[in-house]
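Throughout our pipeline, every protein is held as a single compact record rather than as scattered files. The record that follows is passed on verbatim for readers who wish to inspect the format.
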Amino acid sequence: MKRRTFFAAVAAAGLTAAAGCTTTPTQPDIVDILAANDEFSTLVAAVGAADLAGTLKGDGPFTVFAPTNAAFEKLPAGTVETLLQPENQGQLASILTYHVVPGAVTSDQLAGQRLNVETVQGQTVHIDARHGVRVNGARVIQADVAGRNGVIHVIDSVLLPN
C-alpha cells in the first residue's frame, strides 16, 4: 500500500485519548492515534519514511515521547526535509526510536523521580518528573494518551541522540 494511502486510512480511524492509561482491544494503536491528529503530521510522515509504522502498530507495549509539528519546526531549516530523504532512513530511524521506551510508562509512575531510561534506539534519555515531566529538557505538554499497544506523552521538542 502506498504511504499516502496508508496514512489516509489510518487517519480515518480517529483520535482517542483516554483519561487514564487503561487500554482495551477496541482502542486504536499508537500509529492510529498519531495519524488521526494533524498536530503530528510531521512525526507520522517521519515514521512512514523510516519504515517504523509496522513496528509501532505491533503488540508493544511502547511509551512514545511524541514531538508535535511545532517541535519539528524548532529544528534548523531543512533538517526535516533532509531526514525524510530515502538515503537518510537509518539516521531518521535512529532519531525516532530514541523517542520510544519499551513498556507502557505513565506519568504517575514517573512522578517525583529523576531517572535515566534506555530507549529502543539503545541510548538513554534523562527523565525529570519532579516538577512536571521533562525528557532531556523537552517538556511533556500532554501525558498519558493511551492506545491499545502503549502510551503517548506529547513533547514540545525533538529528542536528538548523541
The longest strand covers residues 138-147. Residues 49 and 87 are 10 Å apart (CA to CA). The chain is about 30% helix and 25% strand. The domain at 3-155 is CATH 2.30.180.10 (FAS1 domain).
